[in-house]
Amino acid sequence: MHFVDALQNKIRANYPWAASPLIVSAPMAKVAMPKLAVAVSRAGGLGFIAAGYHSDHLEDLLEEAEDLFQEGLPDTPVESEKGVPKFLRIGVGFITWSASLEKALPSFSRYCPAAVWLFAPPKGFQDLIPWATKIREATALRTKIWVQVGSVSDAVEVVNAIDPDVIVVQGLDAGGHSLARGASIVSLVPEINDKLRELRPYPQKRADVLAAGAISDSRGVAGAMALGAQGCVLGTRFLASPESMIAYGYQKAILDASDGGITTVRTKIYDKVRDIHGWPEGYDGRGLINKTFLDHLGGLSEIKNRELYREELNRGDEGYGPNGRLTTYAGTGVGLIKEVISAGDIVKSLREGARNILFGQHQPKL
Ligand SMILES: Cc1cc2nc3c(=O)[nH]c(=O)nc-3n(C[C@H](O)[C@H](O)[C@H](O)COP(=O)(O)O)c2cc1C
């Protein structure tokens, strides 16, 4: 058995519909809604819905996902026996410094999503203890606990705090929010894997490690697997899929961009102009460079920049791109994205392409 398949037995046990290597769509706030998540899971990946900054409409989102699964049988969600919750083959992601566990819990009891994704606790990973404990209780351990981290020390802390099922290792080149200081997955994934092996006595189980950040094609997936990841999380690549909830202008800016290391930047200004406050110390966001950032760099006041941002909203799709002002979060892998492809085809083509690179002619059975 090839190392990739051997590594993935546990993943397969927890997400039995998923094929190897596991391709995951990230819970992108306001963008990753049921259509995207269901399309990804249906293609043998795992799709996450973003509950994002709050959990107000979670019940509706999960109901919508359930309906989508039921359209075009045969892959309906597993209806449970009496008293045991259903099981929904998607995950739900929370930005934990702002989301409400109490609001979310009833939906977990009712729908039992396959995974919950926790990101950016307000003070430290101890803050995630109630999330992990209560969700495990509500779903009788069926919902797996995923946590996204951006450093080796955070990975150790989260293991000690809640013993998660999955650690998503987020490289500095990821689109959207991450730690402002960090490294790419090239060093983070192996160093975190080494560190987890060293932890003695290791908590009950060893978390699976997935890689996120700038992975846009099958070469990135194969590379991450070679680094020791057990699957890959992609955000920016899925922005160029019809199932993403983004403006046409945003999607066009993604397709037009190249050379992401130069044309994107990590900054806090894209939150400030949108009046998003409260990200914990040490976080910022990566997006395409546009006039908001350049004017900020040139010394324009935050107040004036926000005013211009608000005016720009009236321009709709025209407000995106290097000459626009509207926030366009994207990772450094943006230059590899040349066309809009259905989310299901993204999952299948990346998975098959990665398997060709990793196995060549000697393909084990999927
Ligand atoms: C538009 C956008 C929105 C995002 N929103 C979230 C979010 O709400 N919660 C979260 O945990 N991560 C979020 N992320 C980060 C992703 O979890 C992931 O780390 C990132 O997309 C991986 O890098 P890539 O975009 O280069 O593939 C977002 C990323 C993007 C591009």
Automatic annotation (TrEMBL):
Pfam families: NMO. InterPro entries: Aldolase_TIM, NMO. Keywords: Flavoprotein, FMN, Oxidoreductase. Gene3D superfamilies: Aldolase class I. The keyword Flavoprotein applies. GO terms for molecular function: nitronate monooxygenase activity. This is Nitronate monooxygenase domain-containing protein. CDD domains: NPD_like. It comes from Penicillium daleae. It comes from the Eukaryota.
